[in-house]
Amino acid sequence: MTKNVLKISGLRVAYGGIQAVKGIDLEVNEGELITLIGANGAGKTTTLKAITGTLPDCRVDGHVEYDGQSMKGLHSFELVQRGLAMVPEGRGVFTRMSIHENLLMGAYTKSDKALIEADIEKWFEVFPRLKERSAQMAGTLSGGEQQMLAMARALMSHPQLLLLDEPSMGLSPIMVEKIFEVIRSVSAQGITILLVEQNARLALQAAHRGYVMESGLITMSGDADSMLDDPRVRQAYLGEG
Ligand code: ATP
C-alpha cells in the first residue's frame, strides 16, 4: 500500500486580516514528486512554511500531518531528525563557508564522520559542479550553483521529504534546465519531493502529480501529464491560447 508522507487538510493561514491560505487539502505519497504551482502571492510559500512550522506570528487552522503525526511545536532540529528538509526561497547558503563546510553543516544531525564524507562524495556525483569547486566560498558561487549547494546541503540530512521553494527563481534558462535535471535525479533515488514552482511547464514535466493554487485555494489537481494537456492550465500557466 502507498504510504502517505504528508497530509494537509483544511489548512487556513491568516496574516492579520489577510487570509493567505483559505482551506486547502494536499497529499504527498512516498516516492512521489508533487508540484504546487501558481502565480505570485497565491499562498504557496505560506503553505510550505505551515508544513515546517516557520510562519511568523499568524493564525493557522487545519491539520498538517507528516508521517501520520502532527509536528506542532517541534524544533527545526527535530524536523530534520524526522526526515523533513526544506530549501527556502533565496536559498540561504552560508556565504562565508566553503562548499565542503556548507555540506558538513547539512549533516549536523549525524555524527559518523566517514559516513558524512561518503555522503558528500555521493552527492558530488549528482552535483559535479560542486565537486569541482569544493573549497570555494559559497558566497562567490553563481545563483544556480548556490541553489545546487542549498539542495545538496538539505540532502545531507537524509530527508524522507524534501520541500523545494522556487528552485528555478532568478536563474538563467540553462541553469534552470540543470536544476530540473537534478530534481529528477534526486526523485529517481526515491526521495519524496514537494516542489513549489512558478515555472509550471518544467515543474509539471518533472512531477507525478500537481496542484494549482490561486488566491489561497487549490483550484485544480491531478496527474501531471493530464494537467499539461488541460486547456485551463495551458492558458493560465503555460502561456498558450
Ligand atoms: P511568491 O511566489 O511571490 O512567494 P506565494 O504563492 O509563495 O508567492 P505567499 O508568499 O505565500 O505566496 O503569499 C501569500 C499572501 O500572503 C500574499 O498576499 C502575501 O502578500 C501575504 N504574506 C506573505 N507573507 C506575509 C507576512 N509575513 N505578513 C503579511 N502578509 C504576508
TrEMBL record:
Q: Name one GO molecular function term.
A: ATP hydrolysis activity
Q: Which InterPro entries match?
A: AAA+_ATPase (IPR003593), ABC_branched_ATPase_LivF/BraG (IPR030660), ABC_transporter-like_ATP-bd (IPR003439), ABC_transporter-like_CS (IPR017871), BCAA_Transport_ATP-bd_LivF (IPR052156), P-loop_NTPase (IPR027417)
- Looking at the record's lineage, which domain of life comes first? Bacteria
Does this entry carry the keyword Cell membrane? yes
Q: Does the keyword Transmembrane apply?
A: no
Q: Which residues form the ABC transporter domain?
A: 6-240
- Write the record's keywords in alphabetical order, separated by commas: Amino-acid transport, ATP-binding, Cell membrane, Membrane, Nucleotide-binding, Transport
**Pfam families attached here?**
ABC_tran (PF00005)
| SUPFAM superfamilies recorded | P-loop containing nucleoside triphosphate hydrolases (SSF52540)
GO biological process entries: L-amino acid transport
SMART domains, from UniProt? AAA
Task: Give the record's family classification.
Answer: Belongs to the ABC transporter superfamily.
What name appears for this protein in its UniProt entry? Answer: ABC transporter ATP-binding protein
Species of origin: Oxalicibacterium faecigallinarum
Its lineage opens with: Bacteria, Pseudomonadati, Pseudomonadota, Betaproteobacteria, Burkholderiales
